[in-house]
Design goal:
Helix content is 32%, strand content 30%. The protein has 583 residues and is α+β, with helices and mostly antiparallel strands. The strands form 14 sheets. A four-stranded antiparallel beta sheet has the order 23-31-30-24. Strands 32, 33, 35 and 36 form a four-stranded antiparallel beta sheet that branches.
């Protein structure tokens, strides 16, 4: 081709290429526009020919489609499901059974969602299938409803069981139950829940085997329960043995269902309590003397046994199931002997009543509380030969925490209120019981002025931290102090009695002299709000003599003992404050 022809053809080819390029660009723009338009037309609408459980929702946005579905299924969701349970007609409320419809999820499953996916756009314009609504199940509500059906129309399976009653075994026979199968029942209800014209659903009860059947019961009887009550279990401590009959320890045993078996369980705390009743766990207990039906008797000492409760727990189930001849559990233990033995207690020779004394008091609730509490604490005190009794040490400080309340006491010759008022009644009664038992007076202080319900010259007062009543058992025998108390009432006096038991060592007599050095009371005018008026009387001196005559094996002689007491006058108290309250 000539050179000039080649040059002419090249511009024509370039022009054609440009036309093709613009044509292609135009097509891209056209189809892109159509694609974008299709996306916006489809939006989140459900494909046009879509139905869900027979309800047409195609061509509508997702929210609107969900509402159309809700309205279309409203009658079906609200109606009862007709069923028969073992032939009995039962109408089931879907809501009570935990059934409902998730409308939004149903629409989304049907394709009602916005997307650039070309398949989604194609389906919207050309597709649309028949879907079933998404059914939700509230498992808690369903299980509760199903349990109600089982209870009403079925029968609960009964597990076999074994329990101990002392040394006897009681068994519960297993029994099969009848119940609806949870999975099959739910499938059947879901299948007809949203059908337009459902038939009645036949629900059949199935047999339910107990978790613990007859073979499980027999296995537990043979393997544990029967051997456990066949013979005692022996606990071997260092130097001693304790035999436990089945009736004692079976209260600590149970057989509990675990993974289809009856498994022995041990109440370790209960077993330790049982063993503790056979031995004195921990520190030993000294012998003592106590009244039994009014007669002093020796309470034997108990050795203390210290053992490891965890060791007892770990080995007991095994030995309880062992055959005869192998039912001994050896425990690492220490046996501690008491310091005061049964032989020591017998040597005290506390055998008979050697003195008793009773005082009476007028009604006042504080006296009932305070005297009664002091008597309770003193009761049962055992004085060994040479020991000294202290009322303050024995009773302790008179506080509310210790069981005492406020009452009248003498302070500076007049009556005031303080905690423990009235305890001096106990002190006076103790003093007189000691006096006639022939014990040694170590410390006693009479009241500052005479109180006419007490024996003149033979009475005592106490005050915590200041004044005490103390006496020593200077006989070769033990002395047991017993108290009894009767409350006062508005119409009757109260009484407190102290009785001492020992072997009689002295025969005590006494004389009381005439009053002398008589003094007259004064009148005191007090302006305090807490003033307590009092009608005064005179003071005096008096002497009381205690005479000792040896009794029984006693070969001692003792001089007469003189108790000289000075009582100050009890002043007349006049309360001058008009607001004073006599509590």
């Amino acid at each position: 081709m000539p050179k000039n022809q080649t040059s002419a053809a090249q511009p024509r080819e370039k022009a054609g290429a440009k036309v093709v390029l613009w044509l292609l660009l135009g097509l891209v723009v056209l189809f892109g526009g159509l694609y974008v338009a299709a996306h916006y037309v489809a939006g989140d609408k459900v494909p046009r020919n879509t139905t869900v459980s027979g309800v047409r929702i195609g061509g509508h946005p997702q929210g609107e489609a969900a509402e159309r579905l809700r309205a279309g299924l409203a009658d079906r969701v609200a109606r009862d499901i007709a069923t028969t349970v073992d032939g009995q007609q039962v109408a089931i409320d879907p809501a009570q059974a935990g059934l409902s419809v998730d409308y939004e999820a149903s629409v989304a499953e049907a394709g009602g969602e916005r997307s650039w996916d070309p398949v989604r756009l194609w389906n919207y314009f050309t597709g649309g299938d028949a879907f079933e609504a998404e059914v939700e199940v509230d498992e808690t509500a369903y299980n509760a409803f199903l349990a109600g059906l089982d209870e009403q129309y079925g029968a609960v399976a009964r597990d076999g069981a074994i329990r101990f009653a002392g040394d006897q075994i009681e068994t519960t026979r297993p029994r099969a139950g009848r119940a609806l199968d949870p999975s099959d029942t739910l499938d059947a209800l879901e299948e007809v829940f949203l059908e337009e014209s459902p038939d009645a659903v036949a629900l059949e009860m199935a047999e339910v085997e107990p978790a613990i059947d007859a073979s499980d019961v027999q296995e537990a009887l043979d393997g544990f329960a029967s051997p456990a009550v066949a013979a005692p279990v022996t606990l071997a401590f260092e130097g001693s043995q304790v035999k436990l009959p089945p009736a004692d320890y079976t209260s600590a045993l149970t057989l509990e269902p675990v993974d289809g078996e009856l498994v022995p369980k041990l109440d370790a705390a209960r077993l330790t309590e049982v063993v503790g009743g056979k031995v004195t766990q921990g520190a030993p207990v000294d012998a003592s003397v106590a009244l039994v039906d009014g007669t002093p008797q020796v309470v034997p000492a108990k050795p203390g046994v210290t053992f490891d409760a965890a060791e007892l727990e770990a080995g007991f189930l095994g030995v309880a199931a062992a055959p005869q001849g192998e039912r001994t559990l050896t425990l690492s233990a220490q046996v501690a002997k008491p310091e005061f033995t049964t032989k020591d207690a017998r040597a005290l020779r506390v055998r008979e009543r050697v003195s008793t004394f009773t005082t009476y008091f007028p009604y006042a609730e504080y006296r009932n509380v305070n005297i009664g509490r002091a008597a309770e604490i003193v009761d049962g005190t055992l004085l060994k030969p040479g020991e000294t009794f202290s009322l303050n040490d024995t009773v302790g400080e008179r506080t509310e925490a210790n069981g005492f309340t406020k009452g009248y006491v003498i302070n500076d010759g007049i009556l005031v209120q303080d905690l423990g008022g009235g305890v001096s009644q106990m002190a006076t009664t103790l003093f007189n019981a000691m006096f006639f038992a022939g014990l040694e007076d170590v410390e006693h202080k009479p009241h500052s002025f005479y109180i006419d319900r007490y024996p003149v010259g033979r009475e005592a007062t106490v005050a915590w931290g200041a004044v005490d009543l103390r006496f020593r058992n200077d006989t070769p025998y033990g002395v047991l102090i017993d108290t009894s108390f009767r409350s006062s009432t508005p119409s009757s006096s109260g009484a407190v009695t102290v009785t001492m038991y020992s072997t009689k060592y002295w025969d005590i007599t006494t004389t009381t002299g005439e009053r002398y050095n008589i003094t007259q009371p004064k009148t005191r005018r007090i302006d305090d709000l807490t003033c307590h008026p009092n009608e005064g009387y005179g003071g005096f001196d008096i002497d009381v003599v205690r005479y000792f005559r040896p009794v029984g094996e006693n070969t001692e002689t003792r001089e007469d003992e003189v108790f000289s007491t000075t009582y100050i006058p009890s002043d007349t108290v006049v309360c001058t404050n008009p607001d004073a309250v006599d509590e």
